[in-house]
Design a protein that fits this description.
Order of helices and strands: HEEHHEHHEHHE
Number of helices: 7
Strand order of the largest sheet: 4-3-5
Largest sheet: 3 strands, mixed
Low-confidence stretches: none
Radius of gyration: 22 Å
CATH class of the largest domain: Mainly Alpha
CATH topology of the largest domain: Helicase, Ruva Protein, domain 3
Helix content: 40-55%
Structural class: mainly alpha
Strand content: 5-15%
Number of strands: 5
């Protein structure tokens, strides 16, 4: 039905044999698959435009930091409290091999925020602090790449504090 609509601009509702439905829509799709794969070839010959975004592994550290900052601020806003994060945890997020893409990074950050929030509630502390122990194990491994990227990380994280604060407010 989708291909019929893309090719002809109309479709028949399921079970219908007589009436044609004409609609004017724009189809926007995203995938992490290779556009040259067999299944996607049937779409790409019908789609007039393909926009390729680089995967997170090909992004600069400053771009990765911007994503990390955005996602932590979103979590801070969602729970209505400021979130503090250990410098080593930020470095781990910057340097780990993200197995998928930006959605995976966001999910990994949400998981660490949830663990830190649980610690905050169970230990009755006055602040939410994300430490290395709150990170998923595959994220923690990122800190092991610090020697390769030390200069870039130091330039990016141009501060002398061990903890960063991400506030729910701008």
């Amino acid at each position: 039905m989708l291909f019929t609509y893309i090719d002809n601009g109309f479709f028949r509702p399921l079970g219908e044999t007589e009436n044609l439905e004409f609609v004017d829509v724009r189809i926007i799709a995203a995938t992490t698959e290779n556009p040259k794969s067999n299944l996607l070839r049937t779409f790409t010959r019908r789609i007039p435009m393909i926009i390729t975004l680089p995967p997170i592994r090909d992004r600069s550290l400053s771009e990765r930091y911007a994503f990390i900052e955005t996602f932590i601020k979103e979590e801070s806003h969602r729970i209505g409290r400021s979130i503090y994060i250990n410098k080593n945890a930020i470095i781990s997020y910057l340097l780990y091999d993200c197995p998928n893409n930006i959605g995976q990074l966001k999910s990994d950050i949400q998981l660490a925020c949830a663990k830190a929030f649980l610690n905050y509630r169970s230990e009755n502390t006055n602040y939410i602090l994300i430490t290395q122990g709150d990170l998923p194990s595959h994220v923690r491994k990122g800190i092991m790449k610090i020697n390769q990227y030390r200069n870039e990380v130091e330039q990016l994280l141009n501060f002398n504090y061990d903890v960063l604060k991400f506030s729910q407010y701008k």
